């Protein structure tokens, strides 16, 4: 495995494509292998133990593709499984939480930070823990928003119903006078304008998908793992794998990514147990 | 296996508990083993092939409990897998679609029937096929409502947002002048009053959970498999198994069932492959 090996990226489904998109933008020369666990999504409602088991299977699969680094592009999997995956791995494993927490703890002026995400992410308390490592003074207010993923997948991105739901969810956080809000689920960047509208201009929105791409670039540079640009990329630059329903994945991917993907391969991820 | 063997009931998660509840009401002497595939829910977005594989594993598990009949308490699994499961099984396997279709095709006066359900159920066209078998003249209008399961699980059962979402979904059906609406997802009976409010008094709502319990009773009677009431039921009348997060399942079950369940056992369903 050399510097021109691909980066492995995985998520429970399509949400991680917002991370893949940022990596494509910020590291345009890197190759990527993406896996979406569409047969078993969502992870947000599953236990830590199950999320670890699923994530291990995926890491095993990605390693068969000789990846040089792995990005856990799923907040739930980062919250529940990142520590375990890191212990077991000889290549860098990066999650979506760390970089976002670092940025949020820096940009807040009143040390009051809100985090929205799936039930699993919020209940894990992972954002709170990492935010307090960066800045022990911060108060962190988490709010689980289980409806938002379905709203994104329904395509109601700019819709009064979606705004009403977000407004309902943010009500609690409003009373806490937060000045920074982490969009702690990979689907949520697609609701950025609705969040902006409801939260107002005074709240800084932090997008973990953007921040993790920045962190990935730093780590690759530091470990001298950045692509040297000499790779033969004909048709193989980006590869996409899913555990179910490749066609639907393709439709959603093409609505998010800057180019149309030609091929999504379906695999049985349970074979990697 | 005798007449006092339990009935096996399964669903992708908690939705099938509305079916379990009806069986408890209508067949109060029968024992039951319930399995909820909480590690892999929802099934509604998964392919036919995957739903069949998951359902087969569950049937294998239920057979280790010596069930005398199996109720597929999940519309998606019924739509995608019932035929296969029946072919492979030596005991009665009953799905949630058939009985509801029979009733709907009888009660409609203008032969225009609407069906709401998950994307998987609606796209399978299973309701349409079965409805037309009972009454070839019916026009069937399906509408996938992916947001409703999340709204139920969020507990927003009597909520203006839920009514607005239902109203949005029913808009298409309204133009079709349906007089009968099948609530084709096991979560939906919990939204019955919201559906009633939006659809109005002139539309007959058909609840598959209720109808399948009626059908089960008929089949057990016909095959002389009904419980003779001499079973020792101390503590073992109803057993609940899940593939993940037993505690959350318990909370939801206790909000639906007529009694509080004491114990939910977690198993690794992939072991039954």
TrEMBL record, chains A, B:
It catalyses: L-glutamate = D-glutamate. Keywords: Cell shape, Cell wall biogenesis/degradation, Isomerase, Peptidoglycan synthesis. GO terms for biological process: cell wall organization; peptidoglycan biosynthetic process; regulation of cell shape. Its EC number is 5.1.1.3. GO terms for molecular function: glutamate racemase activity. Pathway: Cell wall biogenesis; peptidoglycan biosynthesis. Coiled coil: none annotated. The keyword Signal does not apply. The active site is at residues 74, 185. The keyword Cell division does not apply. Substrate binds at residues 11-12, 43-44, 75-76, 186-187. InterPro entries: Asp/Glu/hydantoin_racemase, Asp/Glu_race, Asp/Glu_racemase_AS_1, Asp/Glu_racemase_AS_2, Glu_race. Provides the (R)-glutamate required for cell wall biosynthesis. HAMAP family: Glu_racemase. Belongs to the aspartate/glutamate racemases family. This is Glutamate racemase. It comes from Fusibacillus kribbianus. The gene is murI.
């Amino acid at each position: 495995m050399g510097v021109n090996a691909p980066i492995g990226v995985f998520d429970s489904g399509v949400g991680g494509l917002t991370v893949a998109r940022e990596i494509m933008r910020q590291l345009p020369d890197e190759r990527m292998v993406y896996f979406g666990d569409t047969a078993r999504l969502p992870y947000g409602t599953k236990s830590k133990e199950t999320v670890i088991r699923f994530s291990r299977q995926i890491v095993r699969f990605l390693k068969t593709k000789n990846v040089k680094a792995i990005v856990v592009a799923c907040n739930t999997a980062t919250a529940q499984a990142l520590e375990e995956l890191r212990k077991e791995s000889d290549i860098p494993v990066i999650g979506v939480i760390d970089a976002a927490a670092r940025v949020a703890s820096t940009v807040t002026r009143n040390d009051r930070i809100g985090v929205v995400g799936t039930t699993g992410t919020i209940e894990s308390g992972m954002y709170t823990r990492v935010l307090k490592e960066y800045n022990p003074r911060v108060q962190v207010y988490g709010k689980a928003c289980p409806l938002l993923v379905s709203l994104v997948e329904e395509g109601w991105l700019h819709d009064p119903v979606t705004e009403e739901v977000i407004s309902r969810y943010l009500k609690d956080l409003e009373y806490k006078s937060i000045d920074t809000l982490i969009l702690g689920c990979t689907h949520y960047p697609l609701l950025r304008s609705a969040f902006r509208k409801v939260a107002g201009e005074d709240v800084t929105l932090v997008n973990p998908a953007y921040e993790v791409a920045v962190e990935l670039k730093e780590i690759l540079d530091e470990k001298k793992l950045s692509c040297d640009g000499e790779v033969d990329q004909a048709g193989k630059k980006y590869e996409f794998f899913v555990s179910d329903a490749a066609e639907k994945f393709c439709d959603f991917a093409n609505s998010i990514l800057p180019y149309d993907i030609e091929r999504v391969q379906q695999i049985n991820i349970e074979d990697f147990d």
